[in-house]
């Protein structure tokens, strides 16, 4: 059986690395595209879920991070920096550990899911918590990079999008064609830009016959693309996409418009409902930001805007275990404690 070599080796022909570059990998990519009958039925289309929470650090960020880190390592960098709502920092910390580099992460204080913070800590990153939001952190990270010898590994580093575009290749490889629609959450807007680049490149290479419409969804309290301009105080339960001034603004607008797609918003309640539905009806546990994609698709269906019978790929970006607090926030956790007694257990579970 073929042992997956990581996205850089698997898609080397489509990536800007040289024969001299040593490629890093933690086995990222090669994530499953899982059919979701319950969602397909609800929206009247053929829905496949790209489960990016199965990457090494539990999010899609590993695709872009292995690429940016490989470039940095081969260029002789010793320190990397990133701003993050949690997943980028978790990924940067892991790949920096692997590469033997120092990693500095700038985080919005109090707005990082505990699992993600733990990842940065265990991989030995230098944590800087800032009394501001992600946008403030990114501004500092950019200046650090401009004025000091540290490599910036946020998605403004072009190697990030190069790595992330491999997810689009995988979707096409798995389906044997490009989907009609690709749905994903939008925060800093790197991922929608990267997928669009990947789909275009496969099409231009003659591997696929078409490109999908890109459908992006933001949280209603953090929806600058819907507003049409950056916003100053983003707020949402989906902390991963709590972003008001997306860095890849122009690329995301191009992805939306050139693909004949859209970027819309969903409420926190829709996001948590979709998260629960994915967990209970599909069997996939994702973090809140990831569920914005499914919430958006369901919203489109309610509005009668899903093309009947279309092939739809939906990216769920991060693993639910990263943020158990958000997932449990609406659940009653009061335990039923019983004596060590079979009859009592049988009665309690209603058999
Ligand atoms: N989903 C998750 C789980 C994320 O962590 C992010 C971004 C997104 C979606 C949005 O992707 O920014 O490319 O539009 N997280 C970044 C971080 C900002 O710091 O981890 P995007």
UniProtKB/TrEMBL annotation:
InterPro entries assigned to the protein according to its UniProt record, in alphabetical order: Ser/Thr_Dehydratase (IPR050147), Ser/Thr_deHydtase_PyrdxlP-BS (IPR000634), Thr_synthase-like (IPR004450), Thr_Synthase_bac/arc (IPR026260), TrpB-like_PALP (IPR001926), TrpB-like_PALP_sf (IPR036052)
Gene3D superfamilies per the UniProt record, alphabetical: 3.40.50.1100
Cofactor annotation: pyridoxal 5'-phosphate
A single GO molecular function term of this UniProt record: threonine synthase activity
Role this protein plays: Catalyzes the gamma-elimination of phosphate from L-phosphohomoserine and the beta-addition of water to produce L-threonine.
A Pfam family: PALP
Family under the similarity heading: Belongs to the threonine synthase family.
Entry EC no(s): 4.2.3.1
Protein name: Threonine synthase
Catalytic activity: O-phospho-L-homoserine + H2O = L-threonine + phosphate
Record pathway: Amino-acid biosynthesis; L-threonine biosynthesis; L-threonine from L-aspartate: step 5/5
